[in-house]
């Protein structure tokens, strides 16, 4: 087997190019990880669009937002729509009066008198003015409602993201999540600001015009209704095809956005490995898929308008011919004014029916987007059943008591009010863990870290070192065993309070757009300027910060591109230092920097580790030689434990790693 085939593995289909195989694998992974992205129901399969088990809950949830703070405005908008429809019908019926009561008599007069006609025209002009006012006011109201609803939806989405477990972000591409905030939400905004008002206005117009048509001629109304039924079935048939492609378009758009985000984040890797052509080829396939789905959806969507319009023209001709015959024969008692008014009403009736048909595209696209948005909102949040919280305490007469001010001393407050001093004692008891059921990562992990001790984890990549620290933070839940923190099961501690007591310095530093001081203060928002500077000095970051153009007020981007990797790491350590946690987790914090910077970072970490329980993950063994205990992990098992000298004497895996007798990491 060639190297190329070994890399690719089993191709999704024989004869595919490498880029096509990569795209297909990406799509299959996306379906496996996020099944809610796929279209469901008959509409997704290309069948009819209908209110089924999928769409009805989505519509209910979407309309529920209108009743949350906007019901008054929405009711007013509906009332204005009714007023608009009634005035429009009244203006249309004026055609009958104009012909039968004004024009015909004037034509028979020897000396025509136009005074009554002028008064009638003025009254009609006033009604037309009020129609314009209601239309304008209604448009303002619906835009205000739609923007308010979308604002609330975005807030709820972002709030939900903060409550989701880390595992959700492991299985959903960031680009797809962003697509839900942008494209999907925007489609919902359009349907709220345009489609819903137009549909409601059309419904009110249809009802009022229908009543007016019946009052003029029942036979002609019957002809119009035959064409309405025909229009309905054509709209359903065409809209069903459009619905399938619009749902596929939303998913394709999410996949493309995810690929763009992934490629932009990995630009250095793309360039280093000269992967530009392959990346462009994969993007071309994703872009072509999006174009095909969008084109197919728009083709069917574009058909609806002309079909409805031409049916309306045919209806107009049929009504005119049949109505003229009825008027000439005198069988229905129709006047020339009645025929003219009915023809105008039939147009007014056909137009909203056509508008409703045309809005099917927007509604379907919005429902597809709303389904993805609500799927995110319905994701299960992190489980947090903890009752124990972290509180500041002070000691009086040898006893701890809770206080409101920050004293630097902390205690765990149990549900019954008992205070347990926060010391930083961490113990793992028979811990088993797996990210997925069929692949266990950790087996029977037993370890303890006494307050102030430095515990190090070393071993091969994938041995489970980082997983141990993730479990301590409760990013994931245990399958078996338990973790004790100061004698408390971490499941009994509220997650926010648990994580507040832990400081983490990671290999990949996450900075945020803002000033240097803001990024350090991220560890404790209420930290004073003096405390920020003190933390920077402790982290050996003060000297380079002072050399920046604006010092601590220098604004940096979220990528930290203005700073070196070592400087970003020092800021991360300063952020941890200002939080002043009793337990520190250092996850390969020096693995990507040069020796000089490593020495600087190590010195900074030594400064903030003093008196704190510290868990260190390191590939460079020089950084853990002074640890109280070193755990050597392999395939999820702790195979060796002891301090540096003990492990060298054992001449096992640690000895191999230290002396270079084993393959380096």
Task: Report on this structure.
By secondary structure, the chain is an alpha/beta fold. Among the domains are: 17-69 and 150-377, ABC transporter transmembrane region fold (Up-down Bundle), CATH 1.20.1560; 389-421, no CATH class. It is built from 21 helices and 16 strands. It has helices spanning 3-8, 18-33, 41-44, 55-64, 71-108, 115-163, 166-171, 174-216, 218-265, 267-272, 276-329, 336-377, 465-472, 495-500, 516-521, 529-538, 542-546, 565-579, 595-609, 644-650, 653-659, and strands at 389-396, 399-402, 410-413, 419-421, 426-436, 439-449, 454-459, 480-485, 488-489, 502-506, 514-515, 555-556, 583-587, 613-617, 629-634, 637-642. The strands form 4 sheets. Strands 10-13-14-7-15-16 form a 6-stranded mixed beta sheet, with helices on both faces. A hairpin with a 2-residue loop joins strand 5 and strand 6. Helix 6 packs antiparallel against helix 8 (174-216) and helix 18 runs parallel beside helix 19. The model is unreliable at 1-12 and 32-51 (pLDDT under 50).
């Amino acid at each position: 087997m060639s190297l190329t085939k070994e890399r690719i593995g089993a191709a999704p289909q024989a004869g595919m190019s490498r880029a096509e195989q990569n795209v297909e694998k990406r799509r299959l992974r996306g379906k496996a990880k996020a099944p809610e992205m796929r279209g469901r129901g008959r509409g997704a399969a290309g069948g009819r669009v209908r209110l089924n088990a999928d769409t009805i809950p989505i519509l209910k949830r979407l309309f529920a937002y209108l009743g949350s703070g906007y019901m008054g405005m929405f009711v007013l908008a509906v009332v204005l729509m009714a007023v608009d429809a009634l005035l429009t019908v009244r203006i249309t019926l004026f055609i009958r009066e104009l012909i039968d009561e004004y024009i015909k008599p004037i034509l028979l007069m020897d000396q025509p008198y136009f005074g009554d006609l002028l008064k009638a025209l003025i009254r009609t002009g006033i009604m037309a003015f009020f129609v314009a006012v209601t239309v304008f006011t209604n448009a303002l109201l619906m835009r205000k409602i739609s923007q308010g609803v979308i604002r609330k939806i975005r807030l709820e989405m972002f709030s939900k993201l903060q409550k989701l477990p880390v595992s959700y972000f492991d299985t959903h591409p960031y680009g797809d999540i962003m697509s839900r905030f942008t494209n999907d939400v925007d489609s919902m905004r359009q349907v709220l600001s345009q489609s819903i008002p137009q549909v409601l206005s059309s419904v009110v117009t249809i009802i009022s015009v229908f009543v007016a048509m019946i009052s003029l001629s029942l036979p002609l109304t019957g002809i119009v209704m035959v064409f309405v039924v025909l229009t309905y079935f054509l709209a359903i048939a065409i809209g069903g095809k459009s619905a399938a492609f619009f749902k596929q378009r939303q998913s394709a758009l999410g996949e493309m956005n995810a690929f763009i985000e992934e490629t932009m984040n990995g630009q250095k890797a793309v360039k280093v490995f000269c992967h530009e052509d392959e990346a462009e080829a994969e993007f071309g396939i994703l872009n072509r898929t999006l174009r095909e789905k969008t084109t197919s959806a728009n083709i069917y969507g574009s058909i609806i308008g002309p079909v409805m319009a031409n049916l309306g023209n045919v209806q107009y001709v049929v009504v005119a011919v049949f109505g003229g015959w009825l008027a000439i024969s005198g069988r229905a008692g129709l006047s020339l004014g009645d025929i003219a008014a009915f023809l105008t009403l039939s147009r007014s009736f056909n137009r909203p029916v056509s508008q409703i048909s045309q809005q099917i595209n927007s509604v379907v696209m919005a429902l597809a987007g709303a389904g993805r948005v609500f799927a995110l909102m319905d994701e299960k949040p992190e489980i947090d059943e903890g009752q124990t919280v972290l509180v500041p305490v002070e000691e009086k007469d040898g006893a701890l008591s809770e206080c409101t001010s920050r004293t630097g001393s902390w205690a765990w407050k149990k549900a019954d009010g008992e205070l347990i001093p926060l010391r930083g004692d961490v113990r793992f008891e028979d811990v088993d863990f797996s990210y997925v059921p069929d692949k266990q990562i950790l087996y029977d992990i037993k370890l303890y870290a006494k307050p102030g001790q430095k515990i190090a984890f070393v071993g091969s990549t994938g041995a489970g070192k980082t997983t141990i620290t993730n479990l301590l933070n409760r990013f994931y839940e245990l399958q078996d065993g338990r973790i004790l923190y100061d004698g408390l099961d971490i499941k009994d501690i509220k997650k926010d309070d648990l994580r507040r007591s832990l400081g983490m310095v990671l290999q990949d530093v996450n900075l945020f757009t803002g000033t240097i001081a803001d990024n350090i203060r991220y560890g404790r928002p209420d930290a004073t300027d003096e405390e920020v500077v003190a933390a920077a000095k402790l982290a050996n970051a003060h000297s380079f910060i002072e050399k920046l153009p604006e010092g601590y007020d220098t604004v940096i981007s979220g990528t930290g591109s203005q700073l070196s990797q070592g400087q970003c790491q020092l800021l991360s350590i300063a952020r941890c230092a200002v939080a002043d946690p009793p337990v520190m987790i250092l996850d390969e914090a020096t693995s990507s920097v040069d020796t000089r910077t490593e020495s600087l970072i190590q010195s900074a970490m030594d400064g903030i580790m003093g008196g704190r329980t510290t868990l260190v993950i390191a590939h460079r063994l020089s950084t853990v030689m002074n640890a109280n205990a070193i755990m050597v992990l392999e395939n999820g098992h702790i195979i060796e434990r002891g301090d540096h000298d003990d492990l060298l004497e054992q001449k096992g895996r640690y000895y191999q790693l230290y002396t270079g007798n084993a393959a380096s990491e």
